[in-house]
Design a protein that fits this description.
Mean pLDDT of chain A: 96
Oligomer: heterodimer
Strand order of the largest sheet of chain B: 5-1-6-8-9-10-11-12-13-14-17-16-15
Number of strands of chain A: 17
Order of helices and strands of chain B: EEHHEEHEEEEEEEEEEEHHEE
Radius of gyration of chain A: 21 Å
Strand content of chain A: 25-35%
Largest interface: A-B, 15 and 21 residues
Number of helices of chain A: 6
Low-confidence stretches of chain A: none
Order of helices and strands of chain A: EEEHHEEHEEHEEEEHEEEEHEE
Shape of chain B: elongated
Radius of gyration of chain B: 19 Å
Largest sheet of chain B: 13 strands, mixed
Distance between the termini of chain A: 21 Å
């Protein structure tokens, strides 16, 4: 298959279910909201090593936030409900509550599933906490040294989709990186998704397991250009100098699919040699995102 | 179709209209509603004797006329929408647990008393005991929202345990008396003896207030929860000046004769001096 001058491999990205939460962080300025958001989504690239995956979803204007201050929404994903509950408390407690002027709100108030947030963090107040119910939602007021940290009692969670991906090839590293940056920027325009890796791009794509058997994941030798001769089953063409991957987690299958579609078209527009996707033969994840379904231009 | 009850003429005695709530009348025919029993003074009467009835018993209901002698409208209401076109008597929306009451005139004493949920929105003034506990009971309002665009009488929010009460004008004496928790906001300020014996909870004054001697100054700051509450009030239709959202408030902690876990927030600085 071809999209402009780009070869699109007729394959699919294999994604899997994850539990996801949307956290809205507000502050007196967008800069402080971003500080908290970046901190709360740090070291959250892959559940394999970080226990959760997270990223910035989008900046919010005062008109879009519950307290009419500048804000940022972040998405946080984990494999299990219990894990997500722990990560939420850890990250909001350590990275948002600690950040000057911030407040923390539920970004999925209509979701049926809930994990505690302020309900747990209120204990930091050592008995001095107070709660307020506004429009049916309970908030905890935690006294802190710059005034009060306001945090919603619980956060809505949904069954999302993790592991949507695109793998892009270029003639050399700058060309592949330019394509990947264009694709990542396009993916980020879709609401309800995050790209948890640095800049949204992964260079150390992995395969399941390792030759020595001690690691759950190891380098994807089939896509490493330097191993084109040594790897047992290389997928790298002779004219390819660099391969990069984009990983997408989203609150729904449709959101991940829309992000992949946007990324695919942006990569092709930037001149990618080839776009493919990673899967494990279809045995691991129930969500199969076929590239052939994404060839239509994004709406 | 909205059920409309129009008062034929001002009644000669106070009317107990506790039966007039949309959730209780839902599904009844106009004829059945006309036959419903109410009392005028000590005498039994039928709704049709006092009111012209039209429409049907659906979730929406409107009562029209000079209702100052008609008490207990919407009392105990759990669902639906009740509109009062004209001044109303005492106990409007008392002990309601859900739904919305919009009163387009003044209301009498004990409006929203011991309210548990829903919204009571008064476009005029409210009498004494707004959202309060009835004499002899400990807890007043336990949830929901009460908005008064005008002024409110004495002992508003007395014994209040939970919920949000906001008054666009001034509140009389003894506001928040023995308040257990919840929030009482007076954009026009409080009369004397506000917050006496308050255990937890928040009184907010954007106007005058005498801080009782049993309170102590804590700090000046911008309370994030208050900002959220003010935005909610604006959303519900209460005129909230934008400057209040950015203002600094002084926090007074008390009542130290009780738990001292309550607070009075007083508008300190509207931000224009900075």
């Amino acid at each position: 298959m071809r999209l402009r001058d780009t070869e699109v491999v007729d394959t699919f990205a294999e994604a899997f279910p994850m539990h996801g939460a949307r956290i809205v962080i507000t502050a007196d300025s967008e800069a402080w909201a971003l500080e908290a958001a970046r901190s709360a989504t740090g070291f959250a690239t892959s559940v394999i090593g970080c226990k959760c995956e997270a990223g910035l979803e989008r900046a919010l204007t005062p008109e879009q936030t519950p307290d009419a201050r500048p804000g940022v929404s972040i998405l946080l994903f984990a494999m299990r409900h219990d894990d997500l509950a722990k990560r939420v408390v850890e990250r909001v407690g350590q990275c948002v509550m600690t950040c000057p002027t911030t407040a923390c709100f539920d970004g999925l108030p209509a979701a049926a599933g809930r994990v505690p947030c302020g309900a747990t963090l209120r204990h930091f107040a050592d008995g001095f906490q107070a709660s307020k119910v506004v429009a049916g939602r309970r908030y905890w007021r935690i006294p802190v040294m710059d005034g009060e940290f306001l945090v919603e009692e619980s956060l809505g969670i949904v069954e999302g989709v993790g592991g949507g991906n695109l793998i892009l090839s270029g003639a050399d590293a700058p060309a592949a990186l330019a394509c990947a940056q264009a694709a990542a920027a396009a993916c980020r325009t879709v609401p309800g998704v995050v790209l948890p890796f640095p800049g949204g791009i992964v260079r150390s794509g992995s395969k399941v397991g390792s030759r020595r058997g001690r690691l759950p994941a190891s380098t994807n030798d089939a896509l490493a250009p330097t191993l084109r001769v040594q790897a047992p089953r290389t997928l790298v063409g002779a004219d390819t100098g660099s391969v990069l991957e984009i990983v997408i987690d989203g609150l729904s299958f449709e959101a991940v699919q829309a992000a992949m579609r946007a990324g695919l078209h942006a990569a092709a527009g930037a001149g990618a040699q080839q776009v493919t996707a990673g899967n494990y033969g279809g045995d691991l994840g129930p969500f199969h995102l076929h590239l052939r379904d994404l060839l239509d231009r994004p709406a | 179709m909205t059920l409309v009850l129009t008062l034929r003429e001002a009644p000669g005695a106070r009317v107990d209209a506790a039966a007039l709530r949309p959730d209780a009348l839902a599904g009844l025919t106009v004829e059945a509603i006309r036959r419903l029993a109410i009392t005028v003074g000590r005498r039994p009467a039928a709704v049709g004797d006092l009111f012209a009835v039209s429409g049907d018993g659906g979730p929406d209901m409107r009562v029209e006329g000079d209702l100052r002698r008609v008490d207990r409208l919407g009392e105990g209401m759990a669902d639906g929408r009740l509109e009062l076109d004209g001044p109303a008597g005492d106990h409007v929306g008392a002990r309601m647990s859900g739904g919305t009451i919009v009163a387009r005139g003044d209301v009498g004493a004990y409006a929203g008393a011991e309210l548990r949920g829903g919204l009571l929105h008064v476009r005029g003034d409210a009498g004494e005991g707004l959202a309060a506990a009835y004499p002899g009971t400990r807890a007043g309002m336990r949830g929901g929202e009460v908005l008064v665009e005008g002024n409110a009488g004495d002992e508003a929010g007395a014994g209040m345990r939970r919920g949000l009460v906001a008054v666009g004008g001034a509140v009389g004496a003894g506001a928040g008396l023995r308040m257990l928790a919840g929030t009482l906001i007076a954009l026009g300020g409080f009369g004397p003896e506000a917050g006496i014996c308050l255990r937890r909870g928040t009184l907010v004054s954007a106007g005058a207030v005498e801080i009782p001697s049993t309170y102590a100054f804590a700090c000046r700051y911008r309370p994030p929860a208050l900002r959220l509450q003010l935005l909610r009030l604006a959303e519900l239709g209460l005129g909230v000046d934008e400057r209040l959202l950015h203002a600094t408030w002084s926090r007074w902690s008390g009542d130290r004769l009780e738990l001292a876990r309550g607070e009075i927030l007083v508008l300190e600085d509207d931000g224009r001096r900075r």
